[in-house]
Amino acid sequence: MFDSISFFRIIKTGVVNFWRNSWLSAAATMVMTITLVIFAVLFLLFAVTNYSIKSIQDTVDISVYFKNGLVEDQILSIKKDLETDPKIKEISYTSSAQALEEFKIKHQNDPLITQSLEELSDNPLPATFNVKANALEDYPAVAEHLKDAKYQDFISKVNYEDNRDIIDRLGKILKFIITFGVSLIAVFSLIAILVVYNTITLTIYNRKEELEIMRLVGATNWYIRGPFLVEAIFYSLASTVIASLLFLPVFSNVLPKITMFVNPQVTLFNQNVLNFWYLVAMLLVLSVILAIISVFLATRKYLKI
Fold first, then answer.
1. pTM, entire model
2. Would you say 88 and 143 are in contact if contact means Cβ atoms under 8 Å apart?
3. What does the pLDDT look like over 142-180, one tens digit per residue?
4. Rounded distance between C-alpha atoms, residue 17 and residue 12, angstroms
5. Where in the chain is the domain with CATH 3.30.70?
6. Which tens digit of pLDDT belongs to each residue from 187-202?
7. How many Å apart are CA 238 and CA 36, to the nearest integer?
8. Concatenated DSSP letters of 28-49
């Protein structure tokens, strides 16, 4: 490999190349910054959408209404049977008597409803289940399970269609963000690799004679490639800093407002600072990977190493 002196020479040469080719460095940094900004935007879109789906999932359920005249043992037997379904997360049972009591409390200040209930001899409210699935995609299968023939003599209605549009729409939005996002990141990553690749290639041509002499005197491949790698990593560092500074106001001002809108009782990022640095780390890793790929492609083709 190389000693500490060679290591510092590699770093020094890479830094000099970065500042010497200022316009090329600026162009490479700008394209890489655009790539990182797009990645960050898509990451936040995915996080907010995924969080929104989870928040709505906590409020979405399937309401199951039972026929009148059933004894509680029959209903509890159905509950026990349904709880064996791995797609079902939770079943809340409300008896007919409990439903009536809750209805009375809710409308206790409405004399017309109170009087109407007193005139009725039987309880008009059915027993109900509120069924929650483990995931949004499980709801259609759970709804079909509830409509099974063995439950038809007991269940009068399964109320799923009201929530179906919301569930399907959110699922499609998340799928679109993932598909579109991956495609967009791939395109701009390729552009970033090409720009850095061309920048490194021009630097190689500018130092062609020097590099040939280095090879003749026995310089190792890493000693020749190292400065270009350092130069490209400087593109990565600069683009990461710029992209992070652009997104710092988003984390401190915009995200809290979005999360309050989605769910006022819960914060999307309970540790905003920690998650901001998590995003910065992801941007840095992505930019360094792009830089390394560019350098290895350029040096392999033009330096034959």
1. 0.63
2. no
3. 888 888 888 888 888 888 766 667 767 777 777 787 788
4. 9
5. 68-153
6. 888 887 888 788 778 7
7. 11
8. HHHHHHHHHHHHHHHHHHHHHH
Q: Which of 262, 203, 218 is nearest to 22 (CA)?
A: 203
Q: Which two tokens stand for residue 94?
A: 């409300």
Q: Does 241 score more than 90 pLDDT?
A: yes
Q: Which two tokens stand for residue 53?
A: 């789906």
Provide CATH code, domain 68-153. 3.30.70
**What local confidence, expressed as pLDDT, does residue 107 receive?**
74
Burial of 103 from C-beta contacts in 10 A (0-12 / 13-18 / 19+): middle
3 pLDDT tier (thresholds 50, 70, 90)? low
- Which of 36, 5, 4, 2 has the alpha carbon at shortest distance from 235? 36
| DSSP E strand boundaries for 102-213 | 128-133, 155-159
> For residue 171, which of 270, 62, 60 has the smallest C-alpha distance?
60
Which one, of 176, 289, 243, 229, lies nearest residue 2 by Cα? 229
